[in-house]
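Researcher: We are triaging several targets before committing to wet-lab work. For this one, the compound of interest is zinc ion. I'm pasting the protein sequence and the ligand SMILES. What I need is the predicted three-dimensional arrangement of the protein with the ligand bound, expressed as structure tokens, so it can go straight into our comparison scripts without reformatting.
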Amino acid sequence: MRHDALNQVSRIFLVILLVSLAGILLIIAQSLGFGLPDASGIRPQGVVSAAWNRQVALISGHAGSDSGAVCEDANGAILLTEAEINANVARLVAERMRRAGADVVILDEYDARLQGLRSDVLISLHADSCIDASGYKAAIHAYTIIPEVNRRLLACIDDAYPAATGLTHHPNTVTHNMTEYHAFRRIDPNTPAAILEMGFLGGDRALLTGQAAMVAKGVSDALLCFLEGEKAQTP
Ligand SMILES: [Zn+2]
């Protein structure tokens, strides 16, 4: 009788042990990127070796400063601000990149840490005005001392961003405000950097608000493309 009870207790312990082992294995597999994709296909991937321990800086456009572009109703009440779109995407990009293994920092528009910033890559996230137009655009510093590196970053954005979001490149609207963006002049000149206008608050509102996860995927895919390319450059 006593023997039977002991047997039963050890059997219960064995089951608990097996279940916890399975759980641990599942967690390890997920963290290594072996998880199943979700229905939308935008579930973040696991650790990416090119991103591992790399430093990624994101500027949440207008954060700590002003609201950026706004959409207003007929009475002038503000319906949507660029700054809230930028902050939401920056948060989602940071999540994805941290999951890939990168060390991510989200900076304000005029963050003190921009002065002399050394990072493996910087992207400043902005969105365009509330007009009925659609498309993204990206720019690098007009006077960069690392033009080849920055052009590789721009090429990765032009590859990955439209692929994830379905947006097309908005032509002929890259301004001096972008190519002479203040942060480009403040960071360490060897830090690869780009500014991205993720779409228009007007024509692309549904994407920027309702499908921010896809926008974030576009940005993080561009960052991963760039980090993978740089890894290939330095054997
Ligand atoms: Zn802006």
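Researcher: Any quick observations?
Model: Residues 35-40 have pLDDT under 50 and may be disordered.
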